Automatic annotation (TrEMBL):
Domain (Transcription regulator PadR N-terminal) ranges: 9-83
PANTHER family for the chain: PADR-FAMILY TRANSCRIPTIONAL REGULATOR, TRANSCRIPTIONAL REGULATOR RV3488
Domain of life: Bacteria
Source organism (scientific name): Pseudonocardia humida
The protein's name in its UniProt record: PadR family transcriptional regulator
Pfam families: PadR
SUPFAM superfamilies, per database record: Winged helix' DNA-binding domain
């Protein structure tokens, strides 16, 4: 089950919805920050889940000249599968093969000064993300959103902050030459 399918099933636990409504709600809740979501991809995921009997159509409506929208609800089978997937992901670490560690492992192939410049750019971009997300979390809390619904966002912010700390230490070690840099011809 893809992260998008799992998120969609979880939204349908709340109430029946049509895919576009789910997409808008994911954007409003900043879910697109933790799950790659595009309307077309969501519609395809919904069709696959319907074929697998994880969700079922409960109605179709049309507003004005817009296309018909099918509203779905989660089935008991969908609830079970989604919960099993959540249990597995919570209990067992999974190597997701992020590309940044690969870049770090090959950074020695670039000149020291360029690596410092690139890492400084990354630090600035990550700091901007943290600065952008923290107010959203504060606003959600002020609106009464329970923290349990925001755990994914807190995780992303805290992991980004940890990466920032590690990167700043790495940059300092490279700058003060505590970490030796290979010379390249």
């Amino acid at each position: 089950m893809t992260p998008l399918a799992m998120s969609a099933l979880a939204m349908l636990v709340e109430r029946p919805m049509h895919p576009y409504e789910m997409y808008r709600l994911m954007i409003d809740r900043y879910e697109h920050e933790v799950v790659k979501v595009k309307p077309g991809t969501l519609y395809h995921a919904m069709a696959r889940m319907a074929d697998a009997e994880l969700i079922e159509a409960v109605g179709t409506d049309r507003e004005g000249g817009r296309p018909e929208r099918t509203t779905y609800r989660i089935t008991p089978k969908g609830v079970r599968l989604m919960q099993e997937r959540v249990r597995g992901l919570l209990a067992q670490p999974v190597n997701e093969y992020p590309s940044f560690p690969v870049a770090l492992g090959e950074a020695h192939n670039l000149p020291r000064a360029e690596v410092l410049e690139l890492l400084t750019m990354r630090i600035a971009a990550l700091q901007a993300r943290v600065d952008e997300r923290r107010p959203s979390l504060d606003a959600a809390a002020a609106e009464g959103v329970e923290e349990a619904y925001l755990l994914d966002h807190h995780f992303v912010v805290d992991m980004t902050a940890a990466e920032l700390e590690w990167l700043r230490e790495l940059v300092a070690r490279i700058e003060n030459k505590e970490l030796e840099w290979p010379s390249r011809p």
